[in-house]
Design a protein that fits this description.
Layout lengths: L2 E5 L5 E5 L4 H10 L7 E4 L5 H12 L3 E4 L5 E4 L7 E2 L1 H4 L9 H8 L1 E5 L12 H9 L3 E5 L2 E5 L7 E3 L5 H11 L5 E5 L5 H12 L3 E3 L5 E5 L7 E4 L4 H13 L3 E5 L7 H9 L3 E5 L2 E5 L10 E2 L11 H9 L4 E5 L9 H7 L3 E5 L2 E5 L8 E3 L3 H13 L3 E5 L2 H6 L3 H7 L3 E5 L1
Parallel strand pairs: 2-15, 3-14, 6-7, 10-11, 18-19, 22-23
Antiparallel strand pairs: 1-23, 1-24, 3-5, 4-5, 7-9, 8-9, 11-13, 12-13, 15-17, 16-17, 19-21, 20-21
Bound molecules: uridine-diphosphate-N-acetylglucosamine and phosphoenolpyruvate (PEP).
Length: about 425
């Protein structure tokens, strides 16, 4: 199994290009199923999860073509199955996002329940309730969500709690429903806005994406279109934290600073000098040690759960004590035990971790447990004395494109071994 080896001690310096967002491209690929002609998606990140989604779309009959720049064109006109099997859904929870599109387009869909994952349970009751408001009959049998509706009809739906996935599934379904749908307490993440932009390019009529109230006027058909995926705010944030921890200076190119305000505010609070110029974010730490910061994860525009592990790594070597509250997932502290192996001082009590910064970490073999936990271990390795070897990095390949090449380009001593 492949591993990543990091030799600590280099202050990062240089420029890095940010890829398209994993959490935007996956719903967008599912949304292409709504169209009645090919849809071209560009700025697609080269990720394992993208390959899995493409496999799922191909399995149900969609035509997939990939150009030399990794742009993906999906031709949904050849879809012949409305069943998403367990083998694919289990490896990637985002597969559940084919439910809304298949139901809206074909009047029925069967999608395996995603089950939980390492970071916590991943229920889909909010997705189901939203589709029921649009008139679907939904049952859960033999581990599958089975949904049916001759034609969905618009309605007003209030999500009980903010859910990114449920907002995406119901939004996609509503585009082909008869009449108007109003979604209240909708998620406001930039990835929802990007999905709505892609749907709009396919002929959907959507207002309010990016606010808590989205209004969709259903249309009879969606046509083909083109869309370029929004830059990955979590990837950009991860590189900026790496620069801050190592006392370095980097510029993230092709980023979207307006989608990352909570993260940039915390980096500034940690003592980083930040300069945003169009799609470029420059962070300069001027060789200083970061100051500890308190973090509470919550839905956008608050601090994202997907950056919690990386800021935990920063607090491990910061000056002072940082308190981290994780409010989205019940088990998203699995990086703690691995960070402790590197010499960190962290105490966990329920959803709260208290991190006391130490002067130095020391390299050790560690194990990645999930995607962002893997990133936090690389960050810790960048500042640890000696060598840190990270096992089970397949998690990393789900969500970061060429991370070791990008970090090497910034001067880090990092390599992948078999
Ligand atoms: C609000 C939030 O930060 N969402 C994150 C969540 O999105 P993802 O779409 O995976 O998860 P949701 O936004 O749906 O989950 C938010 C919360 O709602 C609960 N829930 C969700 C659906 C449902 O049907 N029933 C239910 O109870 C979840 O258990 C969770 O506590 O994980 C992604 C991957 O880390 C992140 O990119 C998203 O930013
Ligand atoms: C946990 C993540 O993704 P997923 O919901 O696909 O597991 C993530 O992007 O940090």
């Amino acid at each position: 199994m492949q591993k990543i080896v990091v030799e600590g001690g280099v202050a990062l310096d240089g420029e890095v290009q940010i890829s398209g967002a994993k959490n935007a491209v996956l719903p967008i690929l599912c949304a292409t199923l709504l169209a009645d002609a090919p849809v071209e998606i560009s700025n697609v990140p080269h990720l394992h999860d993208v390959v899995t989604t493409a496999k799922l779309l191909a399995e149900i009959g969609a035509g997939i073509s990939i150009d030399e720049r990794y742009g993906i064109t999906v031709d949904p006109t050849t879809v012949h199955s409305q069943v998403a099997p367990y083998e694919l859904v289990r490896t990637m929870r985002a597969s559940v996002l084919v439910l809304g599109p298949l139901l809206a387009r074909y009047g029925h869909a069967e999608v395996s329940l995603p089950g939980g994952c390492a970071i916590g349970s991943r229920p889909v009751d909010l997705h189901i309730k939203g589709l029921q408001t649009l008139g679907a009959t939904v049952t859960v049998e033999n581990g599958f969500i089975k949904a049916r509706a001759d034609r969905l009809r618009g309605g007003r739906h209030v999500f009980e709690m903010v859910s990114v996935g449920a907002t995406e599934n119901v939004l996609m379904a509503a585009t082909l429903a008869e009449g108007t749908t109003v979604l209240e307490n909708a998620a406001m993440e930039p990835e929802i806005v990007d999905l709505a932009d892609c749907l709009t390019a396919m002929g959907a009529r959507i207002e309010g994406a990016g606010t808590g109230r989205i209004v969709v006027e259903g249309v009879d058909r969606l046509h083909g279109g083109r869309h370029s995926v929004v830059p990955d705010r979590i990837e950009a944030g991860t590189f900026l934290v790496a620069a801050a921890m190592t006392g370095g200076r980097i510029t993230a190119r092709r980023a979207r600073p307006d989608t990352m305000k909570a993260v940039l505010a915390k980096l500034a609070e940690a003592g980083a000098q930040l300069d945003c110029d169009g799609d470029r974010i420059t962070l300069d730490m001027q060789g200083r040690r970061p100051k500890a910061v308190n973090i509470t994860t919550a839905p956008h525009p608050a601090f994202p759960t997907d950056m919690q592990a990386q800021f935990m790594a920063l607090n491990c070597v910061a000056d002072g004590v940082g308190v981290i509250n994780e409010t989205i997932f019940e088990n998203r502290f699995m990086h703690v035990n691995e960070l402790l192996r590197l010499g960190a001082d962290i105490r966990v009590d329920g959803h709260t971790a208290v991190v006391r910064g130490v002067e130095r970490l020391s390299g050790a073999p560690v194990m990645a447990t999930d995607l962002r936990a893997s990133a936090s271990l690389i960050l810790a390795g960048l500042v640890a004395d000696g060598s840190t070897t990270i096992d089970r990095i397949y998690h990393l390949d789900r969500g970061y494109e060429n991370i070791e090449e990008k970090l090497s380009g910034l001067g880090a001593r990092i390599r992948r071994i078999d």
